[in-house]
Structure to design on (844 residues):
């Protein structure tokens, strides 16, 4: 990896994220490789972050009877978290002040108030400066909060992994690999995704108080009618949120059940194929998926109603705020447009930001509690006594065991019901099950200790690996495969551990507006339901096809895939298709239509503005295309960097007894931290380039707003209504277009998950392989898929054979089509009546 330009970047470069330009240029011109990624800052390394959080967690465990993980997190990240929260608050305050200047600009065009016409330019400059200040405050704050969320995730990842290596065997028997993967992927991702929204829990109440004070000055008591509607809407959203949480909690259990079965299927895919259990496993998982999808649809519909409330609520807020005042008093245009601008900010705060913040805290605290429960589980205790001789002493031991249980008790993996077990000296351990770690054969033999040429060659010779070494297999990367048995060569490596180690306005207007409001309500609530329903159905079909493809794929294909990568498709990517993609696409389409409508209205009212719109749209399209060239590659590298984390976790769990017997936990923690740091480098660079793009987009929008403001002021006569509409819509475009851009990036990013799912669906299947000899399918409907060879003697002589003989000549077999032969030129014969036992060779 290259050294990061961030280390030598100036403060201005860091503020505008200009230090990311080299990687953006390179990604636009050519394909990015892992070597092009920048190194992470030392403060973001897994070693530093895990040590920091682990120290505070140990302090919490030692000082309190009821330790809280959130206290340890607070001591590690609180002050940085609050600093960026204050920056975010100051950026949000500028949004609340902007409508005041807008109202003064509109008032300057009142024919009865020509005295203020001369200061309209200065008011416009002040309004534009507020937008500039907002840009300079919000983007560093949001990036900083995302950065803190990333650091929390890294530290928690490491803490969970270290705890996994310390868990007792009794606890591990109750925890599946799928549950651990769900704990790491589904729960910890909440810190990355939602921490930037957490501060709105306290920002929104302060913002609402400020806005209501300003609205009171405009409309007096009528202002509270709109607020009352928003409060009722917020309570409605809260009820929907509780309903959604109920469905999500129920669904989480079903997801865990499905992932547990899927994980077991992937790990034992050879047995599934050997016993022809593909249809049974597919039916079992699909039944769980059906129950899960019922809850997914309910949760998605509730989330849709919650999201759609934002889009139709703006009209009602303005209507309920302005109409009571207009029916009792005379209202001027300045107050209408100022109220609209205030209500836009108020609507966003109450119906979007505050519910999102509450949801973020609910999810984050729930995840923290789950992780805390995991961190407090019983640990494995190694038996260490200072005995004078190398011996094992057992005193009054009472337990029910087999041979393996006795040995596990000596190692400390199991505890006796009574008595004591002591041992001294070094342990030589050979696992009952074949296990290797992903890496070269040489790395498996050395197993994290210093290289000794003599001992290394001794192990190669003892494990009969000389012939294999001649074909350069020592440099062959051993992939973590979904099967237990990987051939005699890799099984012999498993034994090498034991060899090398021992250690406004009449009343009829009211009825018109009520009719319009009812229509908007119906359209706003139900227009997007078919889209959400269709996308969830698509997710159901894709999961079914992917599961079928994996079960029907030949072992030569499955052996080239990592179990963690396959499980990641069924967990993270399917979760994205179920939860994020439907509403993200709905939001993007809705926001795009709002922006197009606003731009069209502004251009019709002031055609000169259309001249400013064309270059802005062109700049937007060019900049987005330029950014996507790099962001797609960075997202792909980030996804590829995530799989080794889960693969390493699965590998460590399978060989946990071996690791603990030889005390290699620190070595595997180092390997896990390397995988974490690799993923962090990709993720941090993606966050930085994304913020570079979003800041440039907002700068373009600020320039567009400045152009619109001065064009409308300098070219409009005495039409205060025209100026009000143009500036109000331009301010609305500012916020909405930024949101639409982010949604477009999110849609593009989420579609990468769809692409990865299709790669699995398009895998070759066993059925697609042409048979080597002519077979005739059975006419029996139950056996129509089975290929049967007919015996010609039975048809001609009407004699059923009395015996069966099998002869194999020159058999050659490979795990992968382009790999080395594991069986080569094997010939044997099995006579009729002869009993033959096929047994896997665990160790040679």
């Amino acid at each position: 990896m290259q050294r990061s330009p961030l280390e030598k970047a100036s403060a201005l470069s860091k503020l505008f994220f200009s230090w990311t330009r080299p990687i953006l240029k390179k990604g636009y011109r050519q394909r990015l490789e892992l070597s092009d990624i920048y190194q992470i800052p030392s403060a973001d390394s897994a070693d530093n972050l895990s040590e920091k959080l682990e120290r505070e967690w140990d302090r919490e465990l030692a000082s309190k009877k009821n330790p809280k993980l959130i206290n340890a997190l607070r001591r590690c990240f609180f002050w940085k978290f609050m600093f960026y929260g204050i920056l975010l608050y100051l950026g949000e305050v500028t949004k609340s002040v902007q409508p005041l200047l807008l109202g003064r600009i509109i008032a300057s065009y009142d024919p009865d108030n020509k005295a203020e016409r001369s200061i309209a330019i200065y008011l416009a400059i002040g309004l534009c400066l507020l937008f500039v200040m907002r840009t300079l405050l919000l983007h560093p704050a949001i990036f900083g909060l995302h950065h803190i969320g990333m650091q929390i995730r890294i530290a928690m990842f490491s803490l969970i992994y270290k705890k996994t290596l310390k868990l007792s065997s009794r606890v591990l028997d109750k925890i599946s690999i799928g549950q651990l993967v769900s704990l790491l992927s589904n729960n910890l991702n909440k810190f990355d995704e939602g921490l930037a929204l957490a501060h709105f829990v306290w920002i929104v109440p302060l913002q609402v108080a400020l806005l209501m004070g300003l609205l009171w000055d405009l409309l007096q008591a009528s202002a509270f009618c709109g607020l009352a509607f928003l409060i009722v809407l917020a309570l409605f959203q809260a009820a929907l949120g509780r309903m959604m949480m109920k469905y999500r909690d129920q669904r989480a259990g079903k997801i865990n059940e499905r992932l547990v079965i899927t994980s077991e299927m992937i790990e034992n895919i050879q047995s599934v194929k050997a016993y022809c259990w593909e249809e049974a496993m597919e039916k079992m998982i699909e039944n769980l998926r059906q129950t899960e999808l019922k809850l997914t649809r309910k949760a998605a519909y509730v989330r849709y109603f919650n999201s759609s409330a934002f889009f139709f609520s703006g009209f009602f807020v303005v209507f309920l705020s302005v109409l009571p005042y207009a029916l009792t008093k005379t209202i001027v245009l300045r107050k209408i447009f100022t109220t609209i601008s205030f209500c836009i900010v108020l609507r966003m705060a109450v119906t979007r930001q505050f519910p999102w913040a509450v949801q973020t805290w609910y999810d984050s605290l729930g995840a923290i509690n789950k992780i805390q429960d995991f961190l407090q589980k019983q640990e494995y205790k190694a038996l260490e006594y200072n005995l004078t001789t190398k011996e094992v002493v057992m005193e009054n031991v009472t337990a029910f065991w087999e041979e393996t249980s006795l040995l596990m008790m000596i190692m400390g993996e199991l505890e006796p019901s009574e008595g004591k077990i002591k041992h001294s000296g070094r342990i030589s351990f050979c696992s009952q099950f074949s296990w290797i770690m992903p890496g070269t054969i040489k790395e498996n033999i050395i197993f994290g200790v210093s290289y000794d040429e003599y001992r290394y060659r001794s192990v190669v010779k003892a494990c009969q690996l000389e012939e294999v070494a001649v074909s350069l297999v020592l440099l062959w990367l051993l992939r973590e495969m979904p099967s237990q048995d990987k051939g005699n060569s890799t099984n012999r490596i498993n034994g090498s551990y034991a060899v090398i180690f021992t250690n406004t306005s009449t009343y009829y207007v009211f009825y018109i507006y009520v009719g319009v409001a009812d229509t908007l309500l119906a359209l706003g609530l139900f227009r997007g339901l078919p889209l959400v329903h269709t996308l969830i159905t698509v997710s159901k079909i894709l999961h079914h096809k992917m599961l079928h493809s994996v079960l029907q794929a030949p072992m030569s294909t499955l052996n080239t895939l990592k179990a963690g990568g396959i499980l990641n498709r069924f967990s993270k990517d399917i979760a994205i298709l179920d939860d994020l993609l439907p509403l993200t696409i709905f939001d993007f389409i809705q926001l795009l239509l709002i922006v197009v409508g606003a731009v069209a209205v502004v251009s019709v009212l002031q055609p000169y503005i259309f001249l400013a719109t064309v270059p802005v749209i062109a700049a937007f399209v060019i900049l987005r295309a330029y950014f996507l060239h790099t962001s797609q590659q960075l997202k792909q590298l980030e996804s590829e960097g995530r799989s080794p984390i889960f693969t390493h976790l699965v590998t460590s769990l399978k060989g946990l007894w071996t690791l603990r017997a030889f005390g290699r936990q620190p070595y595997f923690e180092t390997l896990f931290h390397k995988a974490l740091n690799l993923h962090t480098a990709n993720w941090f660079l993606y966050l930085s380039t994304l913020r570079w793009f979003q800041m440039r987009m907002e700068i373009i929008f600020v320039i567009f707003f400045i152009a619109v403001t001065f064009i409308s002021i300098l070219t409009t006569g005495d039409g205060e209504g025209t100026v009000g509409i143009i500036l109000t819509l331009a301010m609305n475009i500012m916020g909405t277009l930024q949101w639409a851009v982010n949604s477009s990036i999110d849609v593009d990013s989420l579609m990468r998950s769809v692409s990865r799912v299709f790669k699995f669906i398009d895998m070759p299947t066993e059925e697609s392989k042409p048979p080597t000899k002519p077979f005739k399918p059975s006419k029996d409907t139950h056996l129509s898929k089975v290929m049967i060879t007919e015996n010609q003697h039975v048809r001609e002589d009407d004699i059923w054979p009395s015996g069966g003989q099998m002869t194999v000549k020159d058999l050659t077999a490979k795990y992968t089509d382009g790999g080395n032969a594991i069986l080569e030129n094997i010939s044997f014969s099995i006579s009729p009546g002869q009993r033959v036992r096929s047994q896997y060779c665990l160790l040679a």
Remarks:
- The mean pLDDT is 77.
